[in-house]
Amino acid sequence: MGPVSTHRLDHSGFGFAAGLLGTGIGFVAMTVWWSWANGTSFDYFIQDVFIGSAMYKDSILTISVLFNVGVFWLALQKNWDRFARGVLGVIFITVPLIIWLQSQAF
């Protein structure tokens, strides 16, 4: 383990915000890919696939949150332990939400 970082962004609040932003970026990336691969609009993906279908919400959220694994790894590489803790907080909050969404799909 390396020395503790004193970088101004090494704060759990910034990490939490980055985790939320990472989840949003993951959702946008999933929306763009799905729409391109299926020849549909972004609106169709959001309204019909994500909001309108209980079956895909958990999978979409899981893929969206996976972006944060990379952000978490980068923070650890820079020894930004508090930042990484904030990102991990977002991941820990979304896991029960994903489980709940899976239970609602049946």
- Number of helices, where a helix is a run of at least 4 consecutive DSSP H or I residues: 4
Number of structural units classed as domains: 1
Compute the gyration radius: what is it? 16 Å
Main pleated sheet: none
Tell me what you see in this structure:
- The structure is a single chain.
- The protein is mainly alpha-helical and 106 residues long.
- It has four helices and no strands.
- α1 packs across α2 and α1 (12-38) crosses α4 (81-104).
Describe the secondary structure blueprint for this structure:
Elements: H1 12-38, H2 42-51, H3 57-77, H4 81-104
Helix pairs in contact: 1-2, 1-3, 1-4, 3-4
Brief overview:
The protein is mainly alpha-helical and 106 residues long. It is built from 4 helices and no strands.
Features:
single chain; 106 residues; mainly alpha; 0% strand; elongated
